[in-house]
Write a structure and sequence with these properties.
single chain, alpha+beta, Glutaredoxin, seven-stranded mixed sheet, two-stranded antiparallel ribbon, 11 strands
Length: 246
Amino acid sequence: MWGIILPIPREKQMGRGRLQEIAILGKEKKAMVAMTRRAWLAMLGLAPVVGGLAAWAKHKNEEPTPQKLSPRERLQRDHLPNVELITHEGKKVRFYDNLVKDKKVVINFMYTNCGDGTCPITTANLVRLQTLLKGRVGRDIFFYSITLKPEEDTPAALGKYAKNHHVGPGWLFLTGKPEEIERLRRGLGFAYSDPAEDADKSNHVGMIRYGTEPLMFWGASPGMARPEHLLRVLLWEFDRPLPRKA
């Protein structure tokens, strides 16, 4: 059913931060809400159960399309661009066709020379989360870490970073053309309205986007939350049955 808000049950909320994960599905028009660490901190100070930033909200203004698209097609067009990327293994892939379509995914942005420690901490948390998922990563759940500095982070550099952090199978580190990475970042909602803040790449790390693409359910969570909390959030989302293919 469209237009519903799906909160995490009380027993699945984060204890200390009392965060609540929310996934919003608009009836027709959807947009990724800007996902920033500042927004999370502000929300934590305003309400006891606020957090888990809603992944989707309705567009106020959307140009009419020449052809009628399904909600899933509109979502893909506006937020999941089919840009070409290169994996840390040197393989060329298309973001939507090869990585996201029909899959359950966890996505974050990072860069290898992240100076404030956020990227290594988030990566370490995701490594622990990968272990807690007990072999599901690469089977029915897929992890993707996308560099914000494609000019510096070559496939070889990303491969070394992955090896140093003991990343397991089913998790790809990705680079590509700067303009394609930028398009992907904005489409996924990792953006500030203020140009100066948006230009600071450190503002876009430390958060994860997770989703079940065929069901059009998307959410967000702080990547530096306890791995056990992230596990509860993801399993609550990812254990929904997928629609049968025709």
